[in-house]
Amino acid sequence: MTVLEVKNLKKIYRTRFGGTQVQALSCVNFSVEEGEYVAIMGESGSGKTTLLNMLAALDKPTEGEVYLDGKPLSSIKDKNISEFRRDNLGFVFQEFNLLDTFNVKDNILLPLVLKGENYKAMMQKLMPIAKDLGIAPLLEKYPYEISGGQKQRVAAARALITDPRIILADEPTGALDSRSTDELLALFAKINQKGQTILMVTHSVKAASRAGRVLFIRDGEVYHQVYRGNMSDEQLYQKISDTLTILATGGDRR
Ligand SMILES: Nc1ncnc2c1ncn2[C@@H]1O[C@H](COP(=O)(O)OP(=O)(O)OP(=O)(O)O)[C@@H](O)[C@H]1O
């Protein structure tokens, strides 16, 4: 089943007074099946953040459409967008985006609080996720009392607690040291094995090598895709590195 479909997506940024235009996305097409783990790579300025913003309904495309479970995002009224995002999408960012005045538990529960769920229902969802992600002993601590790797686990728990249709991750390992990176990638692999659909933008070959498919964006288009097939993480790592070299040297995609 297709969860996400991106059709002929184009984004042109215009400066305020109609001056210069930047074509950030020229024509992006791809779809993501339920349970897939997709990484998106591309050089700085290739349009990855722009794409993620469209997928998250944080910005509107100039042309084209994004469909979640067949529903066009453009059909959602502006006043319902936040609710739609909260109910269907889970976000994990490079900078964790945790609230320092909330403890870990309240940070994780925030999307459910905003939804108006009752305390008992919230706790029933919290405990299995906290145990699964190894953060149960941290629930009463504050973000400034825990490590970067632990913060990212908390952010992942917050993303998972609403049981989202898809997790959108933007450079989730960008602020982590190598050990925490390994732990987070193992965690993402585990939640994907349990059926969670993940789409991750990353510069890291290591992070991308854990995905099932890697999309390469160049000049605002999906230029190439690599499927894991039967490849091990190491083999996929090598294939991604080779592809990036070809892209950087302007070679042919095949
Ligand atoms: N709000 C904006 N207004 C005008 N131009 C923009 C805006 N946001 C991005 N751009 C331009 O659109 C292009 C794509 O930017 P985008 O941030 O999507 O790239 P990226 O692949 O995410 O880069 P990075 O890896 O450095 O984060 C760039 O040329 C950028 O300068």
TrEMBL record:
Superkingdom in the source lineage: Bacteria
Could you identify this protein by its name? ABC transporter ATP-binding protein
Q: Which family does it belong to?
A: Belongs to the ABC transporter superfamily.
Q: Does the keyword Transmembrane helix apply?
A: no
User: Which PANTHER family does the protein's record reference?
Assistant: ALPHA-D-RIBOSE 1-METHYLPHOSPHONATE 5-TRIPHOSPHATE SYNTHASE SUBUNIT PHNL, LIPOPROTEIN-RELEASING SYSTEM ATP-BINDING PROTEIN LOLD
One GO MF term on file is: ATP hydrolysis activity
Q: Which SMART domains match?
A: AAA
Q: What does the UniProt keyword field contain?
A: ATP-binding, Nucleotide-binding, Transport
Identify the residues that the record assigns to the ABC transporter domain, covering every copy.
4-244
InterPro entries, per the entry? AAA+_ATPase (IPR003593), ABC_transporter-like_ATP-bd (IPR003439), MacB-like_ATP-bd (IPR017911), P-loop_NTPase (IPR027417)
> Taxonomically, what lineage is the organism?
Bacteria, Bacillati, Bacillota, Clostridia, Lachnospirales
Cellular component GO terms, alphabetical: membrane protein complex
Pfam (any one): ABC_tran
